[in-house]
Write a structure and sequence with these properties.
With 93 residues, the chain is of the alpha+beta class. 24% of the residues lie in helices and 29% in strands. The structure holds zinc ion. The site of zinc ion (ZN) has 8 residues, from strand 5 and helix 2.
């Protein structure tokens, strides 16, 4: 069963999600800062307060990012954890 991680409480996940992309071309390089947005409605996700979620499957694969209203709409029955570590501990895979 799928589960959600609240992204503002999981610093390690947040760090991974916010890693900027670097594009190298013949002129040099460009750093493209990462912006976190909902994969359903494209609303920006808060990273310092609740309201952004990462959806994982039982394999621990990240599927999508969700805002609060899309979480309620599409994944209301899925458990929410504070961090991936906590989810792993609770679920004992
Ligand atoms: Zn949304």
């Amino acid at each position: 069963m799928e589960f959600l991680i609240s992204i503002h409480t999981d610093k390690r996940l947040l760090e991974k999600l916010l890693t900027p992309r670097v594009v190298v071309d013949s002129y040099g390089y460009t750093i493209i800062p990462k912006r976190l947005s909902c994969d359903h409605c494209e609303e920006d996700l808060p990273i310092t307060k609740p309201g952004g979620y990462a959806l994982f499957d039982t394999e621990g694969t990240l599927w999508e990012l969700l805002c609060e209203s899309c979480r309620q709409r599409f994944h209301n029955g899925s458990p929410v954890y504070e961090s991936l570590e906590q989810a792993l501990r609770v679920r004992r895979w």
